[in-house]
Every structure is written in structure tokens, then in C-alpha cells.
Amino acid sequence: MKKKFLLFFSSMVLFLLMAGCQSENTGEEQRDAAGESVELTISAAASLQDALTEIEARFEKEHPNVRINFNFGASGSLQQQISQGAPADLFFSAAEDKFDKLVNDGLIEEKNGMDLVGNELVLVVPKDSKIDSFHDLTQADKLSIGTPESVPAGKYAKELLENMDIWNKVEEKVVPAKDVRQVLTYVETNNVDAGIVYKTDALISEKVDMVDTADENTHNPIIYPLGVIKDTSHPEEAKLFYDYLQNEISMGIFEEYGFKGLK
User: Which of 246, 239, 240 lies closest to 225 in space, CA to CA?
Assistant: First the structure.
């Protein structure tokens, strides 16, 4: 009787050990099938926020193992952050010169970068404003643009006003902003009489009127380059999102928000 009990006990122990191993292997197989969760950091111009947020939702549905974290801001500030070692997997700039700085410094390989979309520069004013055009800005008490040294939209705005020969008349009235979204907020809250932003920003606000559009020959072309950071910790996933931003659906979303395709 004792031998039978020992034999039964040994069999049970062996069964439990085998079941545990099988369960562990099944768990490993399931994890392998699901893939490891990866987080990507995308440093992108503030003007891309709405379009990229919509694209992100679609991407994560199709690729549930890849989580996208955005770092939105002025392209100049983002470029400096990356140059100083801040973690990033892709850079989506609103200006070629900020992007080219990272290419020249070897932080983005030229083969992994491209000009993806374009934009336009517009004048926005509070509702019921008497300002109807860029020429009317000489009548404004306060005008907001992005800080030209770090905000591409501000740089383009300054170029525009210089080419129209009115920069020297409005320079003292300028309220600089950290990015185009802040310019838009200043106009929406009536803290300034007018602001110069991208068309894409003007289209998302119901609190402002878009009263004038800059001629393309009054400033440098507004081009948004996109590139993979050379030292990304997740090159495959970064390239996956890089390619996804170029597909037909993503380009359609960009155009819905007012961007112009360059392909």
C-alpha cells in the first residue's frame, strides 16, 4: 500500500512539473506571438499636433505593440533638444534648416529623411476685427508671431513682413510666442489684434477669422521634413511609423487638416 502511495505521489509531482513547464512555454510563445511592447518618441512641430494625433490612433490600432509618444514644440527647440541628447526616434520639423542641422551633425542619415508636406502662412484676427489684410497690420496695437529665432512660422512671418516693407513699422508691436499654437491662443483670447500662423492652425479654430494668405514668393517655402534619428533604440519600429506617415491614408489626413502633399 505504501509503495502504491509513493508511486501515485511521484506521478502527481511529475505531472505538475510537466504542466508547469508547458504553461511557461505557452506563455513564452504567446509573448513571442504578441511581440514586445515598444514606445517611440516623436519630436514634432506644434502645427502637426491634430493631424498626427489622428494618424497615431489609426497606427496603434494596426500595430498594438507600438506606442507613440509625441513631443510637440517649436522646431528650433526640438532640434536643440535632440542635439543635446534628448531621447527621440523621429523628428518631424516645420523647417528645413532645423532638420538639415541634424543631418549635417550626423544625427539623421540623409537616406532616412524626406520632405513630406507643405503649409501656407495666413493672418488671423479676433472675430469682428477691422483688420482685413497684412497691410492693415500697421494699424494694430499688438501683433503676435512665433519667436523668429526658434519658431519657423515666426521666421517666415518676419520674412513676409520684411518683403512687404512693413516690418520696421510693426516690429515694436510684436508679441513673440513660443510656437504657433501660442500665437493662435493670443488671438483667440483677444490679447493681440492679429497673429500670423500656418493655415493648418487657423482651420482648427472657430474663435478667429482667417483674413489673408501670404503669397508664396514673400517667404521661403514652408516644407516639413521627416526623418529617423540615427541612434534610435527601436530602428525597425521607427522605420515602420516613418513609412506609415507616407501612406495614402496618412497623406489624406494631412490634407484634411490643410497641409499640402509634396509627392
Answer: 246
Our CA angle for 154, 160, 165, nearest 5°, is 125
Which DSSP letter does residue 204 get? Answer: T
Write a three-state SS string for the chain: CHHHHHHHHHHHHHHHHHHHHHHHHHHHHHHHHHCCCEEEEEEEEHHHHHHHHHHHHHHHHHCCCEEEEEEEECHHHHHHHHHCCCCCCEEECCCHHHHHHHHHCCCEEEEEEEEEEECCEEEEEECCCCCCCHHHHHHCCCEEEECCCCCHHHHHHHHHHHHCCCHHHHHHHEEEECCHHHHHHHHHCCCCCEEEEEHHHHHCCCCEEEEEECCHHHCCCCEEEEEEECCCCCHHHHHHHHHHCCCHHHHHHHHHCCCEECC
pLDDT exceeds cutoff 70 at 29: no
Report which secondary-structure segment, H or E, holds 249. helix 248-256
Grid coordinates of 154:
515666426
Helix (H) or strand (E) holding 92: strand 90-92
Does an H or E element contain 213, and which?
A: strand 208-213
Give the cell for residue 26: 505557452
pTM of the model: 0.80
Q: What are the tens digits of pLDDT across the range 172-220?
A: 999 999 999 999 999 999 999 999 999 999 999 999 999 999 999 999 9
User: For residue 103, how far is the Cα from the chain centroid?
Assistant: 18
Per-residue confidence (pLDDT) for residue 141, from 0 to 100: 96
Region label for 81, one of left (φ > 0), alpha (ψ between -120 and 50) or beta (otherwise):
alpha
Q: Can you name the residues that pair with 144 across neighbouring β-strands?
A: 175, 195
